[in-house]
Amino acid sequence: MNDWSAEVTENYGLQVENLRKGRGSWILETDRGLKLLKEYKGSVRRLEFEALVLGTVNGLGGLQVDQYLRNKEGELLSSAEDGTRYIVKDWFSDRECDLKDAREVLFAVRQTAMLHKLFRQVGMREEWSMKSMISPPLYEAMERHNRELKKARAFIRGKRRKNEFELCVMESYDDFYRQAVEAKAGMEALFKEHGDELMERYHVCHGDLNQHHLLIGGSYVAVTEFNKMHFGLQVEDVYNLLRKVMEKNDWEESLGRSMLEAYERVLPFGALERKCLYYLFLYPEKYWKQINFYYNANKAWVPARNSEKIRSLRRQQEARMRFVNCLVNW
């Protein structure tokens, strides 16, 4: 096991006063504030991309974002004695956004819009033309997920004795799969008809925006974990955050509308972005996730809570579709 206190003292000149385990990382209390240390398996070029983009927006518009530290050699990436590659960055003591607190959620949404607005000032560079940095058309993931749904359904149908989860899936599959097919077809048609226009709307996106990566400070929001940052449609970030909130609040339509209005007061959506958002919400992503998890896991035993999750998705269907349908005329 590495002595991380000694590592960061030697490579970064930080005096570590306390060290504790974080989520896949180490949290360091140092003489220069709170830091986070974690293993890194990506490329240096990817790190330089993140560092440059985040350095342009940090501290603007009431936002705080991840900032990587350079070691004594001026590098973003360091290597421990055992060969482990790691990074160190500034960190925050603030708590995650509470998805049940409407005021807090709206504050986070407004700051997300501000982040996107600042990101639009960052232009594409030739050295950033890597596969991981440019989003493919949104319908491609839907197409892949639909194939996975069909495989899982075929497997379940072929079983002579079905467990509770499998019976829940067979009872609910047709309605959800119909939505999946419609969403994929609509998104694909949108990209094929307006592909060039949509590409012109590609900007820097967070890539994995949810409550875990939005930390609420006294007068600011700290946005963290940009390891999936890429160029794409920023509406996908909006969808990821809104879906998490709506799922936690039983798809309360008024809350969803308030969130969209809060975002648009800072950064209005275009007509194409609104259509993308509609098809993203129409796609039954959480249903796919539950089935995909089942199909790729040990099928000999399925936890009872997995069956309850499918039932919960069915209970929420009416409220979910009310919100999805309100996006048609929004």
| Shape by Cα distribution | globular
State the strand order across the main sheet.
1-2-3-6-5
**Poorly predicted segments:** none
Strand content: 5-15%
CATH C-level of the largest domain: Alpha Beta
Describe this protein's structure.
This is Spore coat protein CotS. One of its GO terms (cellular component) is endospore-forming forespore. The chain is of the alpha+beta class and 330 residues long. The protein has helices at residues 4-12, 44-57, 102-119, 138-157, 164-200, 235-248, 253-264, 271-282, 285-295, 304-315, 317-326; strands spanning 16-21, 26-30, 33-39, 63-65, 78-79, 85-90, 95-96, 203-205, 214-216, 221-223, 230-232. The strands form three sheets. A five-stranded antiparallel β-sheet has the order 1-2-3-6-5, with helices on one face. A hairpin with a 5-residue loop joins strand 5 and strand 6 (85-90). The longest helix is centred in the middle third of the chain and has 37 residues, at 164-200. The radius of gyration is 22 Å and the shape is globular.
